[in-house]
């Protein structure tokens, strides 16, 4: 389908009680649109069809209780797509319910894609793209404990994993298309002990 006609999930309204998302067998959904599930704080699991390759800006922002989502086939993850998602209320929950992300197909990770912090305001461009969190930052406890990156990754934006406290290592050694890791991509990852780079990264 052309970009204008490809199946797209548009913003959800009144879905605050939504707890899970499953698409029908044979679904040809390609894109979860911007703000599609913004603020669905009771959402815990999402099962995407294999055809889904794009998650728009703020699509799952403030889905604080999100625990599982299959991102293996997703190539584009927009700005703040999972900002303030995968949040634990305390250390015990964070360690007993770790989240592993498979981003092996990802090519683009937007600004604050998995930023666990909550911001009082957001700076944007005229095209409504998130530039960075601004105002007061409230640090949250992220359940993200491991991330698998693939060779196709070419953009790792600023604040992408800001506040991923339980992330202990990041292996970018297979990311041969990645020339640069943006400033603050792993900001406030206090337990990040090792990062492996490919020889293509400056």
Biggest beta sheet summary: 6 strands, parallel
State the secondary-structure class.
Answer: mainly beta
- State the helicity in percent bands: under 10%
Calculate the terminal CA-CA distance, rounded to whole Å.
37 Å
Beta-strand residue fraction: 25-35%
Order of helices and strands: EEEEEEEEHEEEEEEEEE
Polypeptide structure, described:
The protein has one helix at 91-96; strands at 8-9, 20-22, 31-32, 45-47, 54-55, 68-69, 76-77, 87-88, 99-103, 108-109, 118-124, 130-138, 141-142, 144-149, 155-156, 169-172, 194-197. The protein is an all-beta fold and 202 residues long. The chain has a 6-stranded parallel β-sheet, with no helix packed on it. A hairpin with a 5-residue loop joins strand 11 (118-124) and strand 12 (130-138). The model is unreliable at 1-5 and 124-129 (pLDDT under 50).
Write the layout of secondary structure elements.
Layout: E1 8-9, E2 20-22, E3 31-32, E4 45-47, E5 54-55, E6 68-69, E7 76-77, E8 87-88, H1 91-96, E9 99-103, E10 108-109, E11 118-124, E12 130-138, E13 141-142, E14 144-149, E15 155-156, E16 169-172, E17 194-197
Parallel strand pairs: 1-3, 2-4, 3-5, 4-6, 5-7, 7-10, 9-14, 10-15, 16-17
Antiparallel strand pairs: 8-13, 11-12
Output the keywords.
202 residues, 3-stranded parallel beta sheet, 1 helix, disordered N terminus
In short:
This protein is mainly β and 202 residues long. It contains one helix and 17 strands.
